[in-house]
Amino acid sequence: MTDSSRGRPRVGLFVTCLMNLFRPNIGFATAKLLEEAGCRLVVPQGQTCCGQPGYNAGDEDSARALAQQVILAFEEFDYLVGPSGSCLASIRHDYPLLFAAAPAWRARAEALAAKSWELTSFLVDVLGISQTGARFDGVVTYHDSCSGLRGLGIKGQPRQLLAGIEGLTLREMAETEVCCGFGGTFCVKYPEISLKLVDDKIQNVLATGADTLLGGDLGCLMQVAGRLRRRDLPMRVYHVAEVLAGLATGPSIGEGPLASG
Amino acid sequence: MDLHSHEFQSRARTALHDTSLQQALDQARDGFVAKRAAQVAELSEFEALREAAAQLKDHILEHLDDYLERYETAVNAAGGHVHWARDDAEARRIILDICARVDARTVTKGKSMVSEEIGLNEALIEAGLKVVETDLGEYIIQLAGEAPSHIIAPAVHKTREQVADLFEAAHGGPRRTEISDLVDAARQALRGRYFEADVGITGGNFLIAETGSSLIVTNEGNGDLTQTLARVHIVTAGIERVVPTLHDATLFLRLLARSATGQETETYTTVSTGPRRLDDLDGPEEYHVVLVDNGRSRMLAGPFRAMLRCIRCGACMNHCPVYGAIGGHAYGWVYPGPMGSVLTPLIKGLDLAYDLPNACTLNGRCASVCPVKIPLPDLLRQLRHAQFTQAITPRRQRGALAAWRVVATRPWLYHALERVVARILARLGARTGRLRRVPGAHGWTLGRDLPTPAARTFLECWHHEREKS
Ligand code: SF4
Q1: Who among A19, A45, A62 is closest to B458 (CB)?
Q2: Ligand 1: which residue has its CA nearest to atom 2?
Q3: Which value does ipTM take for this structure?
Q4: Is B130 in the same domain as B211?
Q5: Residue B308 domain-assigned?
């Protein structure tokens, strides 16, 4: 009997490149949440990146090569799950488009897309979880990252899970659905415009009086946290997975390195 | 209008430092966004209307040749003339010829983005004609000697104070700053001109194939005066503006005002069909329509057809964070914001407007408000793809992508490099916990710190840990 037939889905963890390098804690938090939810977790070695840097720069050929790599590494699992709306929106929407001219690969891309989930939506929409049993003391505000919000319809799921966190109060900011200015390589290609957008975002964050900013995409969080640090503004920034898993205990993003593992 | 899109980066930088521009942009954006949202909330079938409008537009575009023929026949039957212009130069020539033939001296103009697209004002003035813009926003920027910065609010980049200064200089004192006084002052200045005009030029929001009519919407009524009081009325419009029937136009009208200004409907909706008939009380002696192609049939045939659904409402730019940060002039041509970032490279050239498709975070807010559901971010990405395949993308960037591909398609190499980078960055930031300058990451560290990573990557820790257990 396979594990999945006993009701324990085999999940391949999608390790985003930024998370792997800058914030392993998000990976451990994601793993903890999935395992506590009863998943059998595997971290495939054959993965690197979802391919968006190529796709969004117009290099479809390279994006296709990366998409094939992800498909090969993950198609054996019941699900692909990752802590990023951006990467997951790409896997779900862009991959099938990339293989429009190759029916066999297109079918495999569509099959993978159908079982690929962003973490919070997987917990809520697929596993039906409403509580993660963690505690976090603080007043938080939540930034809706664009790809997750508009690409995958992620809005209620993280909030629903955060509502079950003891000690946490959520205070919504104005324009939470407006872009923070990260935009992948946009933030380094057009830094001045990007900084204007993140300063607008920070103004809305600060206006809530919250002491912590949460979000579901490390790119956006590094953008806001990096700017907050540069401006010497005190504000904790965590990925929502860290809070949900009860692992938001060490220094927040940009506040110094976390001890490994 | 000359193309300045290659100056995007420097223009954007200037705009970011222009305090009155920033003030004007903040005000305008908040108003547009809130008013549209209120209208959408009021109309439960708004989403269904968007879907219907997108489908109807696709149907029209599929049969565009057919509808255009019907339209031409109907215009002729009503006593008007249709002129076909392949490009901007031909459009200018057609209009100059008409003006010369009727011995025109003064031309009044209602707001028309196509006339900006074909550079009409410059051509008319060069030919010795007096050109009077009658739309308040266009009138303001004409006084300022500037180009429009928004497709429905051409002077949106001006603060009220700046308008007051312009009016004082043009009309004499006393200086007035109340909006109603400013509107009044413009009306007074324009009134006489309508009667002087030999030719009145307007745009055309919709061209009705069934009746051969042109339909315009305005909030000031200036379009009506422009087209009824002049001896000759010339409509300029893109070939994609045709719709089958008046009834079809109402579908778009319900979406247009709500999306554009957050009104239920514009103040004036005016339909004109042919020249004045014997028993008409007023109207022009001649009625001409100049149908401009200027790259549109090329769009129709290729992967960018969806862009021709555009009804020029401006919602995409009102909701675009980049437009909101830098305003319309940074885009360097007639059409700014998301729709302009698609149109300008397609009409003027992918190389001459390189930055436009790239200066976008692909956040998708534009597409989520577009009344005809144009997938603007997808089109921008496709333009990037076209730039990449035509080697317009800068060499350095293509080199970086090639290197990234070599590494990213080899997991062992990729992971090894990430491990090395993690160690280096961790050492660099060990003392302070923050990285203020990182070699090769200037674009990032220009205004932000880089978080100091842990010395070991997630994959490293994970496999180390799991192998132990
Ligand atoms: S692209 Fe859509 S939102 Fe933008 S102006 Fe055209 S119709 Fe309006």
Answers
A1: A19
A2: B370
A3: 0.94
A4: yes
A5: no
